[in-house]
Design goal:
By secondary structure, the protein is α/β, with parallel strands linked by helices. Helices cover about 45% and strands about 20% of the residues. Helix 9 (about 250-255) crosses helix 10 (about 265-280). Bound molecules: glycine (GLY).
């Protein structure tokens, strides 16, 4: 088991990564939180697979377990309505400020369970138990919580750090192959941001859910450590944390323009390659840096670009919540292991998209 210590201004917490950790949830929750009572919040796909094991482990350690709250699996559930029913569920179970929410599932569950915990009684503890690769390496760490609005994804949310994160890599065996592959886009992004050796390893041997638990644990733990270093320095995304948006400015536009038929990680991978090409074209990075990024993305079977017209991408990019007036921030790879945030005009952004093709 690996333990990554995260230290944000609002709360320090541990991220446990390893095999067979769901069975140890009771002891982990007992030793790291003060809660007497927990309520598992999960969805209809993950709940039947893992909620019994988590609840049994919690009760065997003497923690009182309230009846779980379950919502329909999938991104379409990530709404204010579902959030409202989760909150009503917590109130029906008479959860108090001394109790904790256990968010068991992928990114949607972590985002909504985290937001429900941030809002209920003006804030109760949340234990994040990510069961997808994307949630383990990205969304369960750093305290971003959200629901979608009709106008776009993640438009309502709060920063609410968990008290504990438990990533049991055994749960990755039930992640559909395409979803696992898609999530590798975020893993590659982290490697480009901060870990040239990891990028090399991933290029030589692409990550799959069939990898042995030691490799999966090691890759997840290295990703969590990269994210930890960023969010510990800039919890509220005033500066450095924006580098985690590498590949996202173009990626979000591809994702929205494809009406979310392409997965988030695939869009980030394509955006990452396009930004790397554009950076090479501008003389901001070497040809080899751009080529290494593209080779790793291609080795994972992820897209290295898009055929969507530039004007379509511009239309979606200008609606992105990360736009700043008539400028957008782009994250530029300078070399593998070093990226910079640059604010560019919309005109310059259009040129970067073109240069990235
Ligand atoms: N997923 C980017 C962040 O947590 O800031």
């Amino acid at each position: 088991m690996e333990v990554i210590k995260v230290s944000t201004a609002s709360r320090p917490y541990d991220v446990f990564v390893g095999e067979g950790l769901l069975e140890r949830m009771g002891e982990l929750v007992r030793t790291t939180t003060g809660c007497e009572r927990c309520c598992v919040v999960t969805e209809t796909t993950v709940g039947p697979l893992y909620a019994d094991a988590v609840e049994d482990a919690l009760s065997s350690s003497g923690i009182c377990v309230a009846p779980r709250v379950t919502f329909a699996a999938g991104e379409p559930s990530k709404t204010l309505d579902t959030l409202g029913s989760i909150l009503e569920g917590l109130a029906d179970r008479e959860l108090t400020r001394d109790d904790a929410v256990v968010a068991l599932g992928g990114g949607v569950t972590g985002d909504m369970g985290g937001l429900a915990a941030a809002l209920y009684l003006r804030g109760v503890e949340v234990v994040q138990v990510p069961t997808s690769l994307l949630a383990m390496v990205d969304s369960s760490v750093g305290g971003k919580t959200a629901v979608d609005l009709r106008a776009g994804k993640n438009l309502v949310g709060a920063f609410w750090q968990p008290s504990l994160v438990v990533a049991d890599v055994q749960t990755l065996s039930t992640v559909p192959t395409d979803l696992f592959k898609d999530s590798c886009g975020e893993v590659i992004k982290h490697a480009v941001l901060a870990d040239p050796i990891l990028l090399e390893e991933l290029e030589q041997k692409p990550l799959t859910s069939e990898d042995d638990p030691e490799r999966l644990s090691s890759v997840v733990a290295r990703n969590v450590a990269i994210k930890r270093d960023v969010v510990s320095a800039d919890e509220l995304e005033r500066g450095l944390r924006q580098t985690l948006n590498l590949g996202h400015t173009i990626g979000h536009a591809i994702e929205a323009a494809s009406e979310f038929s392409l997965g988030h990680g695939s869009c980030v991978a394509a955006g990452l390659c396009m930004m790397a090409h554009a950076a090479f074209a501008r003389g901001w990075c070497s040809e080899e840096t751009a080529a290494r990024i593209e080779r790793c993305v291609a080795a994972h079977g992820l897209p290295v670009g898009t055929d969507l017209p530039t004007e379509t991408l511009m239309r979606y990019a200008t609606h992105d919540k990360k736009r700043h007036g008539s400028n957008v921030n782009v994250v530029v790879p300078i070399e593998v292991g070093r990226c910079e945030v640059r604010r560019v005009s919309l005109e310059e952004f259009r040129d970067l998209i073109e240069a990235g093709r």
